[in-house]
Design a protein that fits this description.
five-stranded parallel beta sheet; 8 helices
Length: 168
């Protein structure tokens, strides 16, 4: 594992898992939201976002956290490992609720109140976005694909990675 993408519904814990994996492996970590968003919740020009992403993709190793369906296939083509956090909607909604009001390293602002449009996006993710993700996973089935259905499965994976890093 040298080039890893971590995808899944908002609130699934992509950033948390990515951060923990980065701490274990020391592979550089990049958050798509930090490449795309400004502190005032406006977005950078698409060309700026794509330039930032391309600068990461040419590196020898990376962990990239985030979905951004417009660039998902590009990242999937470039990676060697895909981690898909395929959690139930209620787990993701709970994840968003628990992080509200807390500073985070993966977005340039602190979320202080519920965003109804964002909540609706989460509620429809498994119907509107998951089929396209599954199709890409099938297209790139030669990649190392890890699909976790629960936080416990993801934690077991991280514990295994930690054990392997201690063996080095």
């Amino acid at each position: 594992m040298k080039k890893i993408i971590v995808i899944g519904c908002p609130g699934s814990g992509k950033s948390t898992l990515s951060r923990k994996l980065h701490n274990i492996t020391e592979i550089p970590l990049y958050h798509l939201d930090m490449m795309f968003w400004n502190e005032d919740k406006t977005t950078v020009e698409k060309s700026v976002f794509l330039k930032r992403l391309s600068e990461v993709l040419i590196k020898d190793s990376w962990i990239i956290d985030g979905n951004f369906s417009s660039t998902m296939e590009w990242r999937m083509n470039e990676c060697d490992t895909v981690i898909f956090l395929d959690y139930p909607t209620d787990v993701c909604l709970d994840g968003v609720e628990k992080r509200r009001g807390k500073p985070r390293g993966d977005i340039p602002w602190i979320e202080t109140e519920e965003d109804e449009e964002f909540t609706e996006f989460i509620k429809t993710f498994n119907v509107s976005r998951k089929p396209a993700i599954l199709a890409l996973l099938d297209k790139y089935k030669e990649k190392n694909i890890l699909i976790f259905k629960s936080r416990e499965e993801a934690d077991r994976f991280l514990n295994e990675c930690e054990g392997k890093s201690e063996d080095r």
